[in-house]
Amino acid sequence: MLKIAHSPIYAHPLPQGHRFPMEKYELLPEQLLYEGTVNTSNFFEPGILDEKWIINTHDYNYFTKLKDLSLTKSEIRKTGFPLSSELVNREIHIMDGSVQAALFALDFGIAMNIAGGTHHSFVDRGEGFCLLNDIAISANYLLENELAKKVLVVDLDVHQGNGTAQIFENNEKVFTFSMHGASNYPMHKEKSDLDIGLPDKIDDATYLKILVDNLYPLLDTVQPDYIIYQCGVDVLESDKLGRLALTIQGCKERDRMVLELAKLNKIPIMCCMGGGYSPKISDIIEAHANTYRLAQEVFF
User: Fold this and answer.
1) Residue 69's CB: how many other CB atoms inside 10 A?
2) Model-level pTM?
3) Whose C-alpha in 50, 221, 245, 248 is 20 to 30 A from the C-alpha of 196?
4) For the residues 19-40, what does the mean pLDDT come to?
């Protein structure tokens, strides 16, 4: 059964006019239920992740400042969010959602988090709408509990997974692969184990060939026994924060490649959603929904 982390707390409201599309966290599950891709039994509600798993990845002093709401104005500004206790609580729930989804994937082959993909969070700071890094926390949880020996992070958000790269820069048990817009945020890129910087306006065919040529060989060279997939849909041509030119169908084929590769090689995969900032919310929902439709098609 496909298990999906979702909680009403994911859609914690932000001030009117804020550019982060929080409504997608409610609209996406509604769409999946309406069309019959999933039913209510597919969803589980995350709780509060034990703090020991957060500070297993993040700096203790940074996490304390988050909880105490004592970040400086500069630190808050870099996150892109107005800091509040509700926001921190939401983030901790998202971390638990990804950890629990990572565990479900061990049983079912795949599991997903409606939120997550917070790859801009570093060990000791937040950036770019990311306070804590669910990809890193989940990978470390699996490794610490000897549930995986080698994790491959496949990050196909339009923005480089700079926080994830920094967290695992000296960790041979996690291989970070980021394929992103070369001239997009963040302007200073960290060093992933494999970075593929893409030119602006790249089309479906070119993008997909580059992905095949780089992702497929990693299974032989890295030999992962677990995959964490950051499947942001800000690669779309319509995305106002992206600079690529993928169609919704091209984005779907991207997801198909990753999911079929995991299924074929019997590697558990946890998917977290990442970014999506197209002006039409329907484009964001359709692109994200395709990932869930494919999960059902490929795995079940």
Assistant:
1) 12
2) 0.96
3) 248
4) 89
CA distance 29 to 103: 21
Residue of 198, 200, 218 lying closest to 208 (CA atoms)? 198
CB of 95 within 8 A of CB of 131? no
Q: How far apart are CA 114 and CA 9, in angstroms?
A: 12
Domain of 68, CATH number, reads: 3.40.800.20
Cβ contacts of 274 within 8 Å, gap of 6 or more: 116, 117, 119, 155, 157, 230, 231, 232, 233, 234
Boundaries of domain holding 191 = 3-299
- Residue 80, both tokens: 């892109």
In the sheet that 43-44 helps form, which strands lie side by side, from edge to edge? 43-44, 3-5, 110-113, 269-272, 226-230, 151-155, 174-181, 194-198
Residue 21 has pLDDT above 90, yes or no: no
Cα 228 to Cα 23: distance, rounded to the nearest angstrom: 24
Distance CA 14, CA 131 (A): 15
Kindly state the DSSP code that residue 156 receives in the 8-state scheme.
-
CB 10 within 8 A of CB 115: yes
The pLDDT, as a whole number, for residue 238 is 95
Q: What are the E-state strand segments in the chain?
A: 3-5, 43-44, 110-113, 151-155, 174-181, 194-198, 226-230, 269-272
CA 129 to chain centre: 12
What would the pLDDT profile of 235-246 be if each residue is shown by its tens digit?
A: 999 999 889 999
Q: Which residue has the tokens 């494919």?
A: 294
Q: Count structural domains, the chain.
A: 1
The amino acid sitting at 6 is H
| Amino acid of residue 271 | C
Whether 105 contacts 271, CB under 8 Å: no
Residue 82: cis peptide before it, omega within 30 degrees of 0: no
